[in-house]
Amino acid sequence: MDKQQQFHASQASPLVRVAALSVHVFTAMGAGVALIALLEAVREHWTAMFWWLGAALVIDGVDGPMARRLDVVRLQPNWSGEVLDLVVDFVTYVFVPAYAITASGLLWPIAAPVLGAGIAVSGALYFADRRMKSDDNHFRGFPGLWNIAAFYLFLLQWPPTASSLSVAALIALTFMPFYVVHPVRVVRLRRLTLSLIGAGTALAIVTLIYDFNPGTTVTVALCAIGLYVVGSDSAIRFVRSLNA
Fold it and tell me: Does residue 56 come out as left (phi exceeding 0), alpha (psi in the -120 to 50 range) or beta?
C-alpha cells in the first residue's frame, strides 16, 4: 500500500471513511442478492430469479459513480473495489445464470451440464483476461453477460437444439477477436446506445411482469436491441473496411 495514500486516508474524518466503506458494503450486497436469485432458481421461480438479477444490475450500475464521488480508493485503500466488483459480477453475470441455463430444461439434457460448466469456465477466464476491454472501451469477445443471454433464452424458448447451439456459440465467441459496445463508456453513438438500453430495460421489465409472455412486438423489439448491442461495432468496422 502507498504510505502517502494511507496517510491521506487517516486524515479524513471517521464519518467520511465510514461512508466510503459503505460503498464497498453496497457492492458486496450484490453477492447476497445473487444468493437469493440462486435460491429462486433452485425453486424454478425463474421470473423471480431475473428480478433479483435485475437488482444486482442496479447495484453494479450505481456503485461505481458512488465510489468515485466519495473517493473510495483514497479513503479505503485496504479494500480493492476492483477485485470486489469482479467477484460480485462473476456470481451475478455468470454463475447464477449458468445454473439457470443448465437446470431450466432449455438445453439438450445430455449437453446441459457440459455447456453449464463451459459457461462457468469461460466466464472465469474472461473476467481474468486483461484484454477484456479495448483502448476505446469496447468489450473484446462476448463479454460474459450470461444473465442477458439467459434472459433471451427464456424469452425466445427455442427448441433445445437451437438453445444448446446458441450457448456453445457464445462460449466460443468469448475468445473471438470481435468487439461489443459498452453502453456507457463507448463515446461513438453513445446517445443512441443509451436510449436503446433504456428502452430495452423498460421492455425487459414488461417481459418479467408478463412472465416471459410479453407479445410479439416486445419480443421483436428486444431482439433488435440485442442485435444492435452485439453487432453494431462489427457492422461499423465492416463498412469502414469497405470504404478504406
Answer: alpha
Residue 159 φ then ψ, to 5°: -60, 155
**In Å, what is the CA distance from 82 to each residue of 28, 34, 60, 104?**
12, 18, 12, 32
| Alpha-helical segments (H) within the chain | 3-11, 14-42, 46-69, 72-75, 81-89, 96-103, 112-128, 146-156, 160-173, 190-209, 216-243
The pTM assigned to this predicted structure is: 0.89
Q: Give the cell for residue 94.
A: 455468470
pLDDT 10s digits, 52-100: 999 999 999 888 888 888 888 888 888 887 899 999 999 999 999 999 9
Sequence-distant (6+) residues with CB within 8 A of 212 are: 46, 47, 154, 155, 157
